[in-house]
Amino acid sequence: MNGSDIVLVIAVILFARLGVRLVSRYIRIRKDARSEKQDKDASSRTEP
To answer: Which of 3, 22, 24 is nearest to 14 (CA)?
Structure first.
């Protein structure tokens, strides 16, 4: 392996880790927003 191959492998690994973190954070935020909306809708229905 040349030096450029090693750098390329490291870059691919780092970008893959970044992508996984971003996608998992996006899914968690979307799930939290959805649950907050459901809680808000449920509380507005029970209050007169």
So the answer is: 22
The token pair at 22 is: 């971003």
**Residue 20 and residue 29: Cα distance in Å, rounded?**
14
- Alpha carbons 47 and 40: distance in angstroms, whole number: 11
**Alpha helical stretches, state H, the chain:** 3-46
pTM here is 0.65
How much is the pLDDT for 23? Answer: 98
Q: DSSP letter for 1, please.
A: -
Question: DSSP state, 48?
Answer: -
Ranges of the chain whose pLDDT falls below 50: none
